[in-house]
Amino acid sequence: MLQSYKSLFWRYYREKLDTHLSTIEAIYYFLVEYHRLLNPEVPYTGQYDNLLFFFKFMYFKIRTLYDPLKLKAYQSTDSEAVTEFQNLKVADQSQ
């Protein structure tokens, strides 16, 4: 069984916990845990991190395009998104 991981997915899930992972997050965490299970003596060094390339790209794109104060996906538990968004806005204005 997978450990609990907090999803970073940007879409709002009605009445779901923040531990409901997106498909790519679930695949990624499965592979990392499977690696650790089969090779407990070999530390995980990021072999599967490239799976999250497009996830990371869209994650930051969504966070720069939309105000987290207005998106339901950010309002429930992600106060860091608000701070990050405000910092991005300040950085954009200074350029």
UniProtKB/TrEMBL annotation:
Q: Which GO terms describe its cellular component?
A: nucleus
Q: Which family does it belong to?
A: Belongs to the TDD superfamily. DTWD1 family.
Catalyses: a uridine in tRNA + S-adenosyl-L-methionine = a 3-[(3S)-3-amino-3-carboxypropyl]uridine in tRNA + S-methyl-5'-thioadenosine + H(+)
| UniProt lineage | Eukaryota, Metazoa, Ecdysozoa, Arthropoda, Chelicerata
- EC id: 2.5.1.25
User: Which UniProt keywords are present, listed alphabetically?
Assistant: Nucleus, S-adenosyl-L-methionine, Transferase, tRNA processing
Please indicate if the UniProt record lists Nucleus as a keyword. Answer: yes
Protein source organism: Araneus ventricosus (Orbweaver spider)
Q: What main location does UniProt list?
A: nucleus
List each copy of the DTW domain by range: 5-60
Query: What does the protein in this record do?
Result: Catalyzes the formation of 3-(3-amino-3-carboxypropyl)uridine (acp3U) at position 20 in the D-loop of several cytoplasmic tRNAs (acp3U(20)).
Q: Looking at the Swiss-Prot or TrEMBL record, what is one Pfam family this protein matches?
A: DTW
Write down what this protein is called. Answer: tRNA-uridine aminocarboxypropyltransferase 1
